[in-house]
Fold this sequence. Notes:
By secondary structure, this protein is of the alpha+beta class. The chain is built from 7 helices and 9 strands; from the N terminus they run βββααββββαβαβααα.
Amino acid sequence: MKIGSNQRVSGRSYLDGQCLIAMPGMSDARFARTVVYLCAHSEDGAMGIIVNKPAADTRFPELLVQLDVIPPDQAILLPSQVERVQVLRGGPVETKRGFVLHSADFFLESATLPIDDGICLTATLDILRAMALGSGPENAVLALGYAGWGAGQLEAEIQSNGWLHCEADFDLLFDDGLDTKYARALSKLGIDPAFLSNQAGHA
């Protein structure tokens, strides 16, 4: 399912609501073979969530206990959908902070940021409490940290062939096939990852 459209919403511009795909020659190892969903992009900079890298040895129910959202004895009583929520390495900025990227069927006034048709971002404990009770969004991932760029920085990286970009869709953002998201993102542009890797660095 595609999110949004090529025609930007009035007042919106840039690449917010789209996915960045790291080129094989990406100089920053933290972003090697990453797919980044851009939550905000303007002349002031950009902010996004890496959607294809898991957080090491971290499970969502355990995080709920660590954050005192639920007591330890309730971890085994969570709805099955909640237990399947993926915890991602969202980026190198504020890595101790959680950001929930989710479908728009859940919204908290003054806390939820609408990004594109059907996609939102919320970074408060209230959404975690709702998820633990089974009343949260139907689709969600929890990212620890985020990726950030200063004014003009992302544009410069794109111009120097650091990134490609493509339309986002629900599968790229929310399904559990993390290992295949990079290839799937490239395929949306009609690019074979093996061919791209072989050509990287050649004039």
